[in-house]
Design a protein that fits this description.
It is a single chain. The protein is of the alpha+beta class and 190 residues long. Helices cover 19% and strands 31% of the residues. The longest helix is centred in the N-terminal third of the chain and has 7 residues. It is globular and about 40 Å long.
C-alpha cells in the first residue's frame, strides 16, 4: 500500500482480509483495491502476474503468509483497480467491467456487507471504511447483501458465499428494514 500511496494513488486492503482482521483472525490472503490502472500497478511492481481482463495484478512478494505451502517461494497480493461489474452469466466472471474512480463505488459491487470493508490511509490517517455496516453485521452474526438482494442472487454470481464457503442449507432469509437505502435481506444461521 505504501508504494502505491507514494506514487500518488489510493490503496486499501479490502474484503475478506479486512473482515478477518475485524474478527481478530489472521488473514489467509491480502487483496488491495486502488485507483491506479493495471498498467500503472505493473510499472510500480515489475515482479507481477497479469493474465486477465478484470483489472487484477498479482504482485509477487516474499513468502509471509502461514497458509502458503512451503513449496512456494512467493506470496501473491492481488491489486485490483476500482471497478463496477455487470451480471455474472457464467456464475464466475462478469459480462462487462468498467473501472471507476472511488473506493465507495468499488465497495458497492461487493456481495455482502461483511466483505464491503476497507482499511487504508485517508487524509493521512489509517481508517476502517464500512459504508454498509459490515462490522455491525459481524457482531450480530448476520449475513446481509449490499444493495438489492434479489438482484444479487439473480445475477448468478457467487454471492451466496462468504469467504469462499457456501451458505449452509439451514440459512433463514427474512426481510428487514435496512441501514442502506436499497432493500436488503437478513440471513441468519439457524
Amino acid at each position: 500500500m505504501a508504494a502505491l500511496g507514494e506514487a500518488g494513488f489510493e490503496a486499501f486492503a479490502v474484503g475478506g482480509s479486512v473482515r478477518d482482521l475485524v474478527l481478530g483472525r489472521a488473514p489467509k490472503d491480502w487483496d488491495l483495491a486502488t485507483n491506479a490502472r493495471p498498467e500503472e500497478v505493473q510499472k510500480l511492481f515489475p515482479d507481477h502476474v497479469y493474465e486477465n481482463t478484470f483489472g487484477t495484478v498479482g504482485i509477487k512478494v516474499p513468502r509471509f503468509l502461514s497458509t502458503t505451502p512451503e513449496r512456494f517461494e512467493h506470496d501473491i497480493i492481488e491489486v485490483t483497480t476500482y471497478r463496477r461489474e455487470s451480471a455474472y452469466t457464467d456464475k464466475r466472471r462478469p459480462e462487462q467491467l468498467d473501472f471507476v474512480t472511488t473506493l465507495e463505488e468499488d465497495l458497492s459491487r461487493r456481495d455482502f456487507t461483511i466483505n464491503a470493508l476497507a482499511y487504508g490511509k485517508r487524509d493521512g490517517a489509517f481508517v476502517l471504511i464500512d459504508p454498509y455496516a459490515g462490522q455491525t453485521d459481524l457482531k450480530e452474526k448476520v449475513i446481509r447483501t449490499v444493495g438489492d438482494p434479489h438482484a444479487r442472487f439473480r445475477e448468478g454470481r457467487p454471492s451466496a458465499s462468504c469467504g469462499r464457503c457456501a451458505l449452509p442449507p439451514n440459512c433463514a432469509i427474512r426481510k428487514r428494514k435496512s441501514r442502506v437505502k436499497t432493500g436488503a435481506l437478513r440471513m441468519q444461521l439457524l
